[in-house]
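Hi R.,

Here's the chain you asked about this morning:
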Amino acid sequence: MKTVKEEVQSLLEKLPDDSTFEDVQYHLYVVDKISKGITRADEEGTLNQEEVERKFSKWISQ
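And the predicted structure, written out as tokens:
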């Protein structure tokens, strides 16, 4: 598992040389959200397609 510093270094190497601070901030935000989502899915589990459709059908049919 990569450290946060290694993740940031990897991200910076992938970004174009003309990236702005805002570009870097945005990409760090996205990486953080994805990481948190994966952790949450690992801890709480996920839903399969049928479960999602069943849950959404309650919203749509109202």
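Helices lie at 4-14, 21-44, 49-60.

Let me know if you need anything else.
M.
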